[in-house]
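Blinded run. Sample ID left blank on purpose so nobody reads anything into the name before looking at the predicted structure. Input follows.
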Amino acid sequence: MDKSALLSERLPQDTIDVPGVGTLTLRGLNRWQAVKVQEAKGTEASEKLVLLYGIVDPALTADDVDQWYRVAPAGEIEPVARRIAELSGMAGDAPKSGVPRVRGKR
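Blinded prediction complete.
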């Protein structure tokens, strides 16, 4: 086993377009960040932490995220936060196991 590989950051990345603004580079959250988000679950702070941790370019501060919340159209932020959650394996529709479902059965 390669200990250095185990202890190095290897988070998935992606980009997303914000219409009329530009492209953001996103990454999945690490375990520590995911725990912090879960601790804040059910509050506005939860989604703000997802954005703070998951947007890597341009890097945003907590104040930047607060400002974006104040000026963004209502539907602009949710797709960004959802994509970060997907990259992190935290999306509600993320697979819970490697066992495929049988078609037509639930």
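Unblinding after everyone has recorded impressions. The chain is about 45% helix and 15% strand.
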